[in-house]
Specification:
The protein has 5 helices and 2 strands, in the order αβααβαα. By secondary structure, it is mainly α. It has one domain: Orthogonal Bundle (Arc Repressor Mutant, subunit A), CATH 1.10.10. The termini are far apart.
């Protein structure tokens, strides 16, 4: 057992803290958020952590998209529609289920 590795709750806290820093009008990828949280290689863990957020969270979960610049939810789902709407309210253009990482990806 590696005692130097943060436990799961600590990893989640690191992700939440990094997510809270993503400014309005910008997006990050799952892998980028993992990197920002000091957890390189934990993109899937980021997804699992976001999935567990309470419905009324104030964290900007909707600013996290996949490495292709796409919303990861199926297009017909309510979650997709909610994320797309929140991104558009944030001033981010979503075209063909894609966000231009060139224009909107956050670079802290």
């Amino acid at each position: 057992m590696n005692t130097d590795s943060p436990d799961i709750d600590e990893k989640r806290r690191m992700i939440w803290q990094s997510l809270a820093a993503v400014p309005a009008g910008k997006v990050v990828t799952y892998g980028q958020l993992a990197q920002l949280a000091g957890l390189p290689g934990y993109a899937r863990f980021v997804g699992a952590t976001l999935k567990r957020l309470p419905k009324d969270t104030q964290l900007p979960w909707f600013r996290v998209i996949n490495a292709s610049g796409k919303i990861s939810f199926p297009e017909a789902s309510d979650a997709y529609k909610r994320q797309r709407q929140r991104l558009q309210e944030d001033g981010i253009t979503v075209k063909d289920n894609r966000v231009s990482l060139k224009h909107y990806q956050w670079s802290p």
